[in-house]
Amino acid sequence: MMPHQPFEEWLLAVHDLSAAEAAKLESHLRECSSCRALATGWAEAERRLEAAPLLAPTEGFAERWQATLVAREIAQRRWQAWLVFGLSLAGALALAVLLGWQVLSSLLSPAHAAVGLLQVMVWVAAAVAAAQEVGLVLVRSLAALVPPGLWIALVVGAAALISLWLITMSRYAIQGVRQ
Ligand SMILES: [Zn+2]
Question: pLDDT digit string (tens) for 128-165?
């Protein structure tokens, strides 16, 4: 059995060998296949360690982390879109139910005539409100131009016209209900 020491130790040593040690190691490696195998194996291992890209796992990790962030953002946006869609749908459904209920109750209720009258009254009220608004604008623009006496006459005339119109409308509404 060939003595492998100190050659094995020299092969794995981190310090540089002296010229005499190197010569002894070289002659031993020529005779000993075991130490030759260790020498080539160790050299290959060192080459691979030096060539190994140490940053590669970090880069892969960074890419995966970035992908996770993007995926999270997409998921969040998708969730927000669904939330907006759901709220809009709920609002539309509530409106549809309300309108449907109104239509059904006006069709099915025995007092649907009263509902019709109520609708006419609401319409008249809206028309009166609009007329008031138009009247206010007219008063503002004419107040400076028209003398006080004529102004009072105009207001009385307008009130008379509006009263006449309201009476006509209420008669029409009552006729509509009686039909
Ligand atoms: Zn040996």
Answer: 777 777 777 766 776 666 666 776 787 888 888 888 88
Residue 58 lies in a domain: no
pLDDT at 112 (0 to 100): 63
Q: Assess whether 103 and 125 both reside in one domain.
A: no
Would you state the structure tokens that stand for residue 43, as one six-digit string? 């050299």
pTM of the model: 0.28
What is the spatial distance between Cα 117 and Cα 120, in angstroms, rounded to a whole number? 5
Query: What is the token pair recorded at 38?
Result: 């260790």
Distance 27 CA to ligand 1 centre (A): 10
Could you tell me the distance, in angstroms and rounded to a whole number, from the CA of residue 7 to the centre of ligand 1? Answer: 6
Parent domain of 157: 110-179
**Measured in angstroms, how far is the CA atom of residue 47 from the centroid of ligand 1?**
22
